[in-house]
């Protein structure tokens, strides 16, 4: 996809990022950009951007944010101390899907993780997202583990 820029997210991108999450009924967790919710999003954004173990990115065409993802760097005692990178909150604007944006974002994530010395890129995807599973498998990801979550 020509004209696509992937860069670190800035304060000016926060609303657009949350709007991408709003589009996703399955994974939105009730996200909505409202005056009541804004302080919580701003606090989370501040924590992410000030952490050396987290990076938040946006994919932009022109002045439009069309995708986002977060990378979390996890030092590990297994794999001889290998650094792992967890890909989180991957979203592509609904109207822009199937245009190569997601593939470019994952390519960028992999290259970026390698520059930081990571040995593994990992992610989880909701079991019902079969199209996403095929997408990740095409990119070389393998189904290797079962994941579990517990709401607190």
TrEMBL record:
Keywords: Acyltransferase, Ribonucleoprotein, Ribosomal protein, Transferase. The keyword Electron transport does not apply. PROSITE patterns: GNAT. The keyword Transferase applies. InterPro entries: Acyl_CoA_acyltransferase, Bact_Acetyltransf, GNAT_dom. GO terms for molecular function: acyltransferase activity, transferring groups other than amino-acyl groups. It comes from the Bacteria. Residues 4-152 form the N-acetyltransferase domain. One of its GO terms (cellular component) is ribosome. This is Ribosomal protein S18 acetylase RimI-like enzyme. It comes from Microvirga subterranea.
């Amino acid at each position: 996809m020509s004209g696509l820029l992937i860069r670190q997210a800035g304060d000016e991108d926060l609303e657009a990022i949350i709007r991408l999450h709003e589009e996703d009924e399955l994974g939105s967790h009730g996200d909505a950009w409202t005056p009541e919710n804004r302080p919580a999003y701003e606090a989370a954004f501040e924590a992410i951007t000030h952490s050396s173990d987290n990076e938040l990115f946006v994919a932009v065409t022109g002045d439009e944010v069309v995708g986002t993802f977060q990378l979390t760097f996890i030092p590990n005692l297994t794999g001889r101390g290998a650094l792992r990178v967890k890909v989180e909150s991957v979203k592509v604007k609904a109207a822009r899907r199937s245009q190569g944006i997601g593939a470019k974002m994952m390519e960028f994530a992999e290259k970026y993780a390698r520059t930081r010395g990571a040995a593994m890129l990992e992610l989880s995807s909701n079991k019902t997202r079969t199209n996403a599973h095929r997408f990740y498998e095409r990119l070389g990801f393998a189904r290797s583990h079962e994941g579990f979550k517990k709401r607190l």
